[in-house]
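Proteins fold reproducibly. Next comes an illustrative record:
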Amino acid sequence: MRKRKNLITVAIDSPAAAGAGTQAKLISNYYKLFYLDTGKIYRYIGKLKLNSKNKFSYKQVKYKIKYLKLNALKSKSLLSNEVAISASQVAKDRKIRDIVHKFQQKCAYQPPRKYKGSVLDGRDIITVQLKDAMFKFYITANLKVRAKRRFDEYKKLKKKITYKEVLKTLKNRDKSDKEREYGPLKKTKDSILINTTKLSKKACFKKIKAIMDKKLNN
């Protein structure tokens, strides 16, 4: 794939509900970078599988991803626990990951001209998608803190789910994300660890900004 020159590329890996999406958006806005929440792509495919049932196929996924409009990833229907579980299942499939990989690469290395680069967050961005990223962050937080954050998100969306159910789902997702055969979630030696358990959104971004500014201003 041809890569645009002088791009600022930011790769973020994290377990679910660690605050990576929030930080990616802040980085995107401040540095004028194109933002892609890669987890939403798998949620989109997960929902497609739930809706298609027996008609779900690789050909269908390939077509849908080829003509995917990014606004489709903003749908609130992708935020349900049921879709999250389905997304975790389809994300284990090598063929689906290969289809999504091509789409992610294009977003990362050929963002629209108005952007100075790209920021992607997911589970295998550092290890698979953007191995040569200028900045690599591994964002994490305590499981119970993450479950509370996700539960609060569901409450705002008026979703009927208990904290215990959210905790159990996240625990299972962590296991699935870390143990899957293709693109497992793991911290690399060259990525910077950011633990958000006791950090506010503002304090976390301040930490990331200091790291990025030091390199960009040299």
About this structure: Residues 10 and 130 are 8 Å apart (CA to CA). Residues 8-203 form a domain with the Rossmann fold fold (CATH 3.40.50.300).
